[in-house]
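1st attempt posting a full record on here, be nice pls
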Amino acid sequence: MSRILAALSASALMLGASPAMAAEPDSTAQAEAPVDPARLAAARQTVDYVFPAGTYARIMNATMDKIMDSVMDSVGKMPIKDLAGMGGVDTSKLSSASLSEIMAIYDPHYKERMTLTTHTMMGEMTTMMTEFEPEIRDGLAHAYAAKFDVKQLGELNAFFATPTGSEYAADSYMIMMSPEVMDKMQAFMPKMMKQMPAIVEKVKTATADLPPPRKYADLSDAERAELADLLGISVAELEEQQAAKSE
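the predicted structure (as tokens):
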């Protein structure tokens, strides 16, 4: 459970810390709609201001370990019944014990293990995202070029060339990871967890008219063969796996 929580939390934070990834335009769309070279050149100058090379390393090295420690601490303090409620489990008989209290019984080194796990993950993510950063910067340049014309980009760049503009641009992405912002985001997590049981019920209602997902036993021989082919295993191996699950 601890590994899953670490992976999910790290992934969520990476997405939150990487607005550039969300803004990156589709590569196919770029190929179909060439951007005006002058516009793209101005946009690249804008990106040099707002997302200079090395931005990911700054974000990860300056804030992510502290943020991950704080997030995992918050998750650990949450009542297990709130976490179980996310899966639609009946929580009426569960106590208000926290995840950390329960995990401490299974693993006396739980907190230390989680800290080492998340710090190692963040270190590897820093390396990976730094290698990928040129692609993000290129995507950002195309996004700015698609959103703003040459005149607008020129005005942005003129502002970013001023002392105030330069300081703002250099930290524009870092601001989203500041303690003041992250404190508010972390405070949202317990509220979200408490709402999850109600959300799960709404999902059940929304999908109530759909037939239930089929089980392996419901599949035809042809469908089982197709499934085995998609998984890259033989039908016999697939049958063995399914038999093991039912034991």
